[in-house]
What does this fold into?
Amino acid sequence: MAQDNATIVRNFVDEVITQGHIEAADRYVWEDVIEQVPMPGQGPGLDGLKDILRAMRAGFPDIVFSIQEQITEHDKVASRFEWTGTHNGEFLGIPATGHAVRVWGIVIDRLEDGRIKETRIIMDTLGLMAQLGVLPPPSAP
It folds into this structure.
């Protein structure tokens, strides 16, 4: 029996992101996947996705990506997620800070024939930058 789309997304997150088996992304994502909101410097397609996932694991080697809830409709899966990690490597040009981070977000994936064809991620990048200490603290009134 084929897995439902929500399970496919959960398995991708667990195996590819949290466990770090980046090459296994081929089983979950189409070669010509479209990232609607790419990360800075992210190239197109599956190769671009793998590159950004490698960069995340290099910057946060202990990353744990967990799905908090999912909503499915037809061929789409919306996943509310949170990821945690320790900034022990360079990420987006920011040298390692040793700071522990907790970042929330939502990703909407559209699947075709059991693999992700299109994805759109909305992540609290501003909160991430604040936790890394790269934003100036708010000025006092």
